[in-house]
């Protein structure tokens, strides 16, 4: 017997006896299909699905009779195909991320065991942009936006969409919640468009917002959640919350802003875009935050 034949026999034996491993990734709330890995499902006489090292059975198939075990974790969420033995988990949850073991018995007496590693991920939602305030002073338009998105381990970044001959300063006022704020300054009463991008692992989502300043109102106007000010108390609360966000945003990075305050008030000079200036890249340097001069 040649060496090639021996190796081939060993591979076949390992697949039939020790089985194979498969990795399945689905998003939260979807259905996950876990396959037995059998090349001849019509030859199966028994299929048993289990979890944990103590072999907790959750579903089985014997002589084409399906049994779903009443395990609280998967109650009303399991389906077993009576022809193939494949297991479907409906409405997957984050704690369904486990290794699932399937023990097979073939008509010829072989008993392979396969493992399926299931990973459940949160689907990244599109970020939401809100206008915090804007003002027009001496022909200079100042706008503040915030961007939020639910989820964990999400990175937010800002970039102008198209040509932008102004300045903007962006950063994260908190380290726990996925929230990012951008302060924009440009000349005139035209409009500019900014893009907030949320990224998490392989997922990327973005949202655009076009903003500007009109010539009539030359005062700060708060965002939509503060506009229905039927009572003075609600308006006061809005401004308190807005002020708190700005103060935290400034205090966390107060040292870096000193470099920008040597010749006067704080200017929006970070990340200047002009025909001769390079495009802003969130990867080239960490996102700065607004700071106060002390």
From TrEMBL:
Which residues does the UniProt record annotate as the domain Ig-like?
A: 127-212
Taxonomic superkingdom: Eukaryota
Q: Does the keyword Methyltransferase apply?
A: no
Q: TM spans, by residue?
A: 231-251
Cellular component terms per the entry's GO annotation: cell-cell junction; membrane
Q: What is this protein's name?
A: CD48 antigen isoform X1
Spell out the subcellular localization from the entry: Membrane
Query: Which Gene Ontology terms describe the biological processes this protein takes part in?
Result: immune response
Which SUPFAM superfamilies does the UniProt record give?
Answer: Immunoglobulin
Q: Which InterPro entries does the record cross-reference, listed alphabetically?
A: CD2/SLAM_rcpt, Ig-like_dom, Ig-like_dom_sf, Ig-like_fold, Ig_V-set
What UniProt keywords apply to this chain's record, in alphabetical order? Glycoprotein, Membrane, Signal, Transmembrane, Transmembrane helix
**One Pfam family here:** V-set
What is the source species?
Danio rerio
Gene name of the encoded protein: si:cabz01074946.1
